Amino acid sequence: MGPFSEPTFDGKRYVHVILDDYTHYVEAHLLTCKSEASDSLKRFILRAENYHEVKTKTVRFDGGTEWFKCKTWLESRGIIAETTPPYSPQVNGRVEVMNYNLCCRMRALMLDSGVPNKLWGEAVKTAAFLINRSPTITDKTPIENWTGKRPDLKDLKLFGCKAYVKTLTYVNKLQPRSKPLTFVGYALGGYLLYDENKNKTIVSRDVKFVENEIKPHEKTLSINEIDDYFSRVISTEKEDVEETPDPDTL
Questions:
Q1: What is the per-residue DSSP string for 158-191?
Q2: Same domain for 99 and 207?
Q3: What is the span of the domain harbouring residue 31?
Q4: CB of 31 within 8 A of CB of 17?
Q5: Nearest by Cα to 131 from 162, 106, 149, 111
Q6: Residue-wise pLDDT tens digits, 52-105
Q7: Parallel, antiparallel, or unpaired: how do β-strands 200-204 and 26-31 relate?
Q8: Under-50 pLDDT residues of the chain
Q9: 32 and 124: one domain?
Q10: 83, 118, 147: which is the final residue of a domain?
Q11: Is 178 exposed, middle or buried (0-12, 13-18, 19+ CB in 10 A)?
Q12: pLDDT digits (tens, 9 = 90+) for 103-122
């Protein structure tokens, strides 16, 4: 996907979406330019083959020039490289639908949290993280199909909320023991947090989250409020149907 009109805080403009057709597991990789997509796919294939101890059979992508070098590399490893026809995104429909879902969830996360536009990259990666842990048509989530382990959801936090990170370096007795940052995602062994002053992200596990500090106009609806809203909508639709005259009786 891309290029996005505004780059991320670290200069990324593209998103490389990789979807496993069997498990529905998805990864979103941020790229500075489209030419990086080839190396991104190679790294994913090598990592996936090493993790699962199986060989990749087929890879499908569009006919972009960024895939020329990758296609030669795939064929040298005995992997079938399928290229979709020009202007035919429906041939690779599952990935196109995933792109749409990622964009929708990215917008929802950003609008609900009110984070600046330069954090859209972290929102996309968080959206992929949540999709991998969401129910599918099977009785397992994509991450469970991919790793064989049931995900632990008790550590999920509100995207964009304030997070106080413990200061692990030396501080004197009068200095604060933590500093406020913005929670923007998940990392191996900890949480990903954005430091506005230094314009960078850090990983920490010593974090205190403040998820209830939402401005009144940004407050999201509770589950009961959502259920009540849809109940009113359904009741209104039923009334409209009952009041509509049958054309056969006219």
A1: -TT-EEEEE--S---TTS-SEEEEEEEEEETTEE
A2: no
A3: 14-147
A4: no
A5: 106
A6: 999 999 999 888 888 888 888 999 999 999 988 888 888 888 899 999 999 999
A7: unpaired
A8: 216-221, 223, 226, 229-230, 233, 237-250
A9: yes
A10: 147
A11: middle
A12: 999 999 999 999 999 999 99
